[in-house]
Amino acid sequence: MNENKKLKILLAAPRGFCAGVDRAIEIVKKSIKKYGAPVYVRHEIVHNKHVVDSLKKIGAIFVDELDEIKDKTRPVIFSAHGVPKSVPKKAAEYNMQYIDATCPLVSKVHKEAEILHNNNYHILLIGHRNHPEVIGTMGQLPEKAIDLIETIDDANFFKKKDEKNIAYVTQTTLSVDDTKNIVEILKKKFPEIKEPVKEDICYATTNRQAAVKKIAKECEMFFVLGSRNSSNSQRLVEVATKSGCDKSELIHTESILPIKKIANCKTIGVSSGASAPEVLVENFINKIKEKINVEIKEVEIIKENIIFKTPGKLN
User: Fold this and answer.
1) Do domains 6-17+203-300 and 105-201 have the same CATH topology?
2) What is the pLDDT of residues 124-151, one digit of tens each?
3) What CATH fold (topology level) applies to the domain 6-17+203-300?
4) CB neighbours of 218 closer than 8 A, spacing ≥ 6?
5) pLDDT beyond 60 at 199
6) Catalytic residues
7) Less Cβ around it within 10 Å: N or C end of the chain?
């Protein structure tokens, strides 16, 4: 490889951890400090293997469901994605102490859906089937009170089942542009549809997508550090592709660094999903530095200073 050639790395900012992820990780750490190990966590606290493994090392045990927990006297934490109402109900039946690490912006969507339901609206949730956040939001309401809209086709084919007014809410980690297209169709079909007072897609998702959009067209390859089951990371890859960089890919724990392809580039872009720690970005860039001379330019579109407090009982 040409030792004198310089590779330009455009580093998107903001990237990586958002306030909801920071808070969720902090809740696990503070719970272990307060109650001792082990502390149980229902589902991955956030979608990142590096984070999950580091919390396992200090005493977190991850389970899929509460009935897997052998020692019900130990506290259990609910993940940042939120849970259906049946989960805290089950914890209460087991007489378990639980700590809810649901991101406040996801909780906002839960409350919104509940208020709309109580005001006799039928709710459409724009989101991805089987994502924990979608399961949690749909689980706030009776089964027939809410329908999932995943695609433009779903929006086109949806038919009202009753005389109720219609409202929509969204998953917080969607593609801003794709969601806008779905909403436009719903508004055309149902001009009276009630929309959220404040955008449901969270600030971190919006900011990270905007930062990727700004630099993707200048890049020959674009890399997003994040997990395969992370919705916001997958959306960043899509945004980079749609914004002009055909060779955009997700770098996860099993990924092999395509160093030869990178060496043939003049400029690459790098970002990371909201659940990916900055150390993953540093490691990725350091691996490239071992083989190629690099020049790093951070492109920041906005400063984020949002902090969500952890529950008072942990302080």
Assistant:
1) yes
2) 999 999 999 999 999 999 999 999 999 9
3) Cobalt-precorrin-4 Transmethylase; domain 1 (3.40.1010)
4) 10, 267, 269
5) yes
6) 133
7) C
